[in-house]
Amino acid sequence: MKNRSSLWAMLLSIVVVIAITVVAVLVYLMNRDAVTEVEAPDIAVVDQESGAIVVGSGEHVLETYVDFMCPYCGEFERSWGADIASAVEDGSITLRVVAVGFLDSQSSGTNYSTRAASSLYCVADEDPDAVVPYMAALYADQPVEGSEGLSDEELLAHAADVGVSSSSFQSCVTSQEYADFIAQLNGTVPVNPSTGNRGIPAILLDGDRIDYTEGPGVLATL
Description:
Layout: H1 2-33, E1 53-55, E2 60-66, H2 71-89, E3 93-99, H3 112-126, H4 131-140, H5 152-161, H6 167-174, H7 179-185, E4 191-192, E5 197-198, E6 202-205, E7 208-210, H8 217-220
Parallel strand pairs: 2-3
Antiparallel strand pairs: 1-3, 2-6, 4-5, 6-7
């Protein structure tokens, strides 16, 4: 009887140890896979809910999701850029820009998409009026997919050309201060109802998705 009790006690101890081990492993896995939410940058022109950079104050809202390595985003900029800049300047639209890092894998290990997107938020913090011209400058010098992309020095040079060059800004760019936030923004790109996938550029006018290939003429009707 005593031997049987000892056996049960030993088995119970083994079960308890196994249970504790299983719980510990589950807790570890949950913590490892947990995604810590990154708060939106404390920048005056960044919407704290969506993370969009907000430029202008027009009645109509043009919302854009772009990647600086994306060739289709480059086409969008070349087709729409000047009209968007004019519409922001004359008060026709409010521009909301969400820069993402979808194509980091296409920059030979330099994470160019994220670096460029982060630098845009650095510009927004330093001088909101420079956001649109800085975007235009990056697309005018857009690297091809598969290349290393622009270096930090080249990003800084383009920023200097639009009047942003403080030491704090330079540190913001080289440290990729908003890289974690950019990674989070990747999941906010709206799904294209025609494909069921998140794709860029994603363009919404007053909440309705539009095809950028239709051209910027729609802005003239606002």
